[in-house]
Specification:
Elements (H helix, E strand, L loop, with lengths): L7 H23 L6 H26 L7 H33 L7 H19 L1 H4 L3 E4 L2 E4 L1 H23 L6 H23 L6 H17 L14 H14 L3 E8 L2 H27 L5 E5 L2 E7 L8 H4 L11 H13 L2 E3 L2 E3 L3 E8 L6 H9 L10 E2 L2 H21 L3 E10 L5 E12 L3 E3 L1 H10 L3 H17 L2 H4 L4 E5 L10 H12 L6 E6 L7 H14 L2 E7 L6 H4 L6 E4 L1 H9 L1 H16 L3 E5 L4 H10 L3 E3 L9 H9 L5
Parallel strand pairs: 8-9, 11-13, 13-14, 14-15, 15-16, 16-17, 17-18
Antiparallel strand pairs: 1-2, 3-5, 3-8, 4-5, 6-7, 10-11, 10-18, 11-12
Helix pairs in contact: 1-2, 1-8, 2-3, 2-8, 3-4, 3-6, 4-6, 7-8, 14-15, 16-18, 18-19, 21-22
The structure holds ligand C2E and magnesium ion (2 copies).
Length: 660
C-alpha cells in the first residue's frame, strides 16, 4: 500500500511503535498496574511514546500536502511542535523510571531535583518558544531545518541517559539482578536505536527501539505478579526479603509494622483453612484501605508486614513529587498501628459468622531502632517478649527481643572460646554446718555482654539445639571434680547436675550420660541429676523409663523447683526421685502470708509422707534456716551459706583447703 508522496518505511516504523505502545498501555490498565509510582512513571513513558509516534505518523501523511495547502502546513507545524514538546520529556522520564525501580528516588537530594527540573524546564521553554525564536528548527521554504537548539536537546537527552547509566553502575551491587539486567537491556536497546538513527537518518528506528525496550521492561520489571500472594493480592514473603535487602543496600530509612494473629495455629485449626483464608483476605482488604497495597506483605500464616518509607517526608523535596504526590502519601507509623489495633478490637463478619481476632503488632524504624536487616528478619520470626501482654510492641520491647539474638551470638562465641564456666553452690545438712553436697550451675562470661545467667541463656541454648553439648560439658567438669577426690575428702555425698527436659527426647541419652561418667571411673552415686517438676504429661512414660534406667546405673535424682509447675502431683511423684527440691518461691511465700506458711508446711509434710529427702533452696536468712529446722527438712541451699562460686573458690572457702 502506498500513498502519493508518503514515506512508507517511516510510517511502518512509527506504526509499529504506536501499536506496541498502545498494547503496553492497555495491558497495564487491564492488569491494574497503575498505582505504584514505578507503574505510573512507566505509563508516562508509554504515553509519551504514543504521542510521539502518532504525531510522526500524522506529519508523514501531511508532508506531501504542505506545499499545496496553508492549512495543512499549519497543522503540520503544530504536530511537529507537539512532537518536540513530548520528546524532550522522554529521557527525563527514563531517568525517573530507573530511579523508581531502583529506589534511588527515595534518596533524591534537593539539588538533584532542582537540577533536573531546571534543565527539563529550560529545554521545554526552548521548544515552546521555537515558533517565535526558531532556535530549535525552522522551515526553509517547506523544508524542515535543524538549528543549534536541536543540538542542545540532543545533548540534554544524552546527559540524562548517561546519568541513568552512571546511577545504575554506581548502585550496581545494591540493585537486584533482575532489575539490573532489565534496565541494562532497556538502555542498551534505546541507545542502539538512537545511534542507528544518528548514523543513518533515513532509518527512523528510535521510537521503535524504545517501544521494544518497553516491552522488555513490561515483561520483567512491571510484571511483579510472581511476587504477589495469590489470595490476598499483596506482596509475598520473598518480595519482603527483596525489599528489605534493597532498602538496606540503598540505605533507605523506613518504618515497619509486623502484625500477627495471636494463637494462629489454634485459630487455623478451629476455623479450618477455608475460613482462615477468608479472614486473611478480609484483613488484607482492610489494610489496603489504610495504605497502598504495595506496602503490604503477607509474611506468614496470620502475619502481615507493612513497610512505609520515612525518607520521603522531608519538606522541600516536593517539586518533582507533585506529579506523584498521591503515590507518596506520608504515613505516621504510630497512627497506622493505632488504626489497625482499633479495627482488630472489633469483630469480623464472614458468611454471617462473627470472629474476634486477637493481634499483636511489633513496630520498628530502620535504622534508628533496628540497625540491620538481619535483626528485622529475626524480629519477624521470633516470639513476642514474655511478660505482660501488649497490643503494640515497640522501643524497649524490641531491645528485649533483640537481646536474645545477642545472647545467641554470645553462646556461639562462648562455645568456641570456652567462656562457659561451671560454678558450684554448696548444699548443707539441716544443721547448717555440715556440707552435704553442691549444685553445679553454669555461667557464661562474655566479653561483650558481660556476665550472662542461665535463666537467660539456657532457653536460648535449647532453641539452638545445643543443650546436649552444654550439659555434657557440665557433667564432664563435675566428673573431673569428683575424680580429684576433693569433694569426697570434704565429706560431700554428691554433686548435682541440672538436666534439660528436652534431652529426654533423645533415645541414646541415658547411655550417653552413663558413658561420659564411666570414662572417669567414679562412683555414680556421687552424681545427682536434677530435673524440674514441670514435666509434660505426654512424654511422662518415656521420662519415667529413662529415669529408672539411669537409677539402675547407680545415679541419684532430684526433682527440682518443686511447687512452681502445674503438673499432676501423683504423676510427678511416680518418678523415682531420691530428693525433692522445694522451690525458693515456696519458702519466700511462707514469710509473706499465713497461706504461704500453710503451703510450705503442708508441702513438706506431704513429701515426708512419700519418704523422700527434702532440699529447700533460696535460704537467704538465719530466720529462714531456723524455720526450716523446725519443719525438719533435710538439706539447705542458698545465699545465706554461699552464692554459686568458682571451683577454686569452692575448694578454698567451702571445703577449706587453703593450699592446693
Ligand atoms: P535451679 O536448678 O533451680 O538452680 C538454683 C538457682 O537458684 C540458681 O540460679 C541459684 O543461683 C539460685 N539460688 C540459689 N540460692 C539462692 C538464694 O538464696 N537466693 C536467690 N535469689 N537465688 C538463689 P542460677 O544459677 O541462675 O540458675 C538458674 C537455673 O538455670 C537453674 O535453676 C537451672 O534450672 C538452670 N541451670 C543452671 N545451670 C544449668 C546447667 O548446667 N544445665 C541446665 N540444663 N540448666 C542449668
Ligand atoms: Mg537445679
Ligand atoms: Mg531449683
Amino acid at each position: 500500500m502506498t500513498f502519493e508522496g508518503v514515506n512508507d518505511t517511516r510510517v511502518y516504523m512509527y506504526s509499529a511503535a504506536l501499536i506496541i505502545a498502545v498494547s503496553l498501555m492497555m495491558h497495564s490498565f487491564i492488569q491494574k498496574r497503575t498505582d505504584k509510582r514505578q507503574n505510573v512513571t512507566f505509563l508516562y513513558m508509554v504515553g509519551a511514546l504514543i504521542i510521539n509516534s502518532s504525531t510522526e505518523i500524522v506529519c508523514e501523511f501531511l508532508h506531501p500536502h504542505i506545499s499545496d495547502s496553508a492549512a495543512a502546513f499549519n497543522v503540520y507545524k503544530v504536530f511537529q511542535l507537539l512532537y518536540f514538546v513530548v520528546h524532550v520529556l522522554l529521557a527525563p522520564f527514563f531517568l525517573l523510571y530507573e530511579m523508581s525501580v531502583t529506589d534511588l528516588i527515595k534518596k533524591l537530594k534537593n539539588y538533584t531535583v532542582v537540577f533536573v527540573v531546571s534543565i527539563v524546564s529550560a529545554t521545554e521553554i526552548l521548544v515552546l518558544t521555537n515558533p517565535i525564536t526558531n532556535f530549535v528548527y525552522y522551515y526553509d521554504g517547506y523544508d524542515f531545518t535543524r538549528n543549534w537548539g536541536e543540538g542542545i536537546i540532543y545533548i540534554v537527552a544524552v546527559v540524562f541517559l548517561l546519568l541513568s547509566l552512571v546511577n545504575l553502575f554506581y548502585y550496581w551491587r545494591a540493585i537486584n539482578p533482575i532489575k539490573k539486567m532489565s534496565l541494562l537491556y532497556f538502555f542498551g536497546v534505546v541507545i542502539l536505536g538512537l545511534l542507528i538513527q544518528l548514523l543513518f537518518p533515513e532509518v527512523r528506528c528510535e521510537l521503535f527501539a524504545e517501544a521494544i525496550a518497553f516491552v522488555g521492561v513490561m515483561i520483567t520489571i512491571e510484571n511483579d505478579d510472581i511476587m504477589k500472594d495469590y489470595e490476598t493480592g499483596v506482596y509475598d514473603r520473598p518480595a519482603l526479603m527483596t525489599e528489605l535487602k534493597n532498602n538496606e543496600a540503598m540505605n533507605v530509612r523506613f518504618g515497619l509494622i509486623s502484625l500477627r494473629l495471636k494463637d494462629v495455629d489454634t485459630v487455623f485449626k478451629t476455623n479450618g483453612p477455608e475460613n482462615f483464608n477468608k479472614l486473611s483476605v478480609e484483613a488484607a482488604e482492610f489494610l489496603k484501605t489504610l495504605i497502598q497495597r504495595y506496602y503490604i506483605y503477607h509474611f506468614d500464616r496470620g502475619h502481615f508486614v507493612i513497610i512505609v518509607n520515612t525518607e520521603m517526608n522531608d519538606q522541600g523535596r516536593q517539586i518533582v513529587r507533585k506529579l506523584a504526590r498521591k503515590y507518596e502519601s506520608k504515613y505516621n507509623l504510630s497512627e497506622l498501628a493505632k488504626k489497625i489495633d482499633e479495627r482488630f478490637n472489633d469483630e469480623w463478619i464472614i458468611d454471617d459468622t462473627r470472629y474476634l481476632l486477637g493481634i499483636a503488632q511489633v513496630k520498628m524504624s530502620y535504622p534508628d531502632e533496628v540497625t540491620n536487616v538481619n535483626d528485622i528478619i529475626y524480629l519477624l520470626n521470633t516470639d513476642l517478649p514474655e511478660g505482660k501482654e501488649k497490643s503494640i510492641y515497640e522501643g524497649e520491647d524490641l531491645k528485649k527481643m533483640l537481646r536474645k539474638t545477642e545472647v545467641k551470638k554470645a553462646i556461639t562465641r562462648g562455645l568456641e572460646e570456652s567462656e562457659f564456666e561451671v560454678y558450684y553452690q554448696p548444699i548443707y545438712h539441716i544443721d547448717g554446718e555440715k556440707l552435704y553436697g553442691a549444685e553445679a550451675l553454669l555461667r557464661l562470661h562474655d566479653r561483650q555482654l558481660g556476665e550472662i545467667y542461665p535463666d537467660e541463656f539456657i532457653p536460648a541454648v535449647e532453641e539452638m539445639g545445643l543443650i546436649d553439648a552444654l550439659d555434657d560439658y557440665v557433667l564432664k567438669n563435675v566428673c573431673a571434680f569428683i575424680k580429684s577426690g576433693i569433694p569426697a575428702g570434704g565429706a560431700m555425698k554428691s554433686i548435682s547436675v541440672n538436666l534439660s527436659l528436652l534431652q529426654f527426647r533423645n533415645e541414646d541419652f541415658v547411655e550417653r550420660l552413663n558413658g561420659i561418667v564411666e570414662v572417669y571411673k567414679i562412683p555414680k552415686t556421687m552424681v545427682n541429676f536434677e530435673i524440674t517438676e514441670t514435666v509434660g504429661s505426654d512424654d511422662m512414660d518415656d521420662i519415667k523409663d529413662m529415669v529408672s534406667r539411669l537409677k539402675n546405673f547407680g545415679f541419684h535424682f532430684s526433682m527440682d523447683d518443686y511447687g512452681t509447675g502445674y503438673s499432676n502431683i501423683s504423676k510427678s511423684f511416680s518418678l523415682d526421685f531420691d530428693v525433692v527440691k522445694i522451690d525458693k518461691s515456696i519458702l519466700w511465700g511462707a514469710e509473706k502470708s499465713e497461706l504461704g506458711m500453710t503451703v510450705l508446711t503442708n508441702t513438706i509434710y506431704m513429701i515426708k509422707q512419700l519418704n523422700k529427702k527434702i532440699v529447700v533452696e533460696g535460704v537467704e536468712t538465719k530466720e529462714q534456716m531456723e524455720l526450716l529446722r523446725k519443719l525438719d527438712v533435710d538439706y539447705l541451699q542458698g545465699y545465706y551459706f554461699s552464692k554459686p562460686i568458682t571451683k577454686d573458690e569452692f575448694i578454698h572457702d567451702i571445703i577449706g583447703i587453703k593450699e592446693l
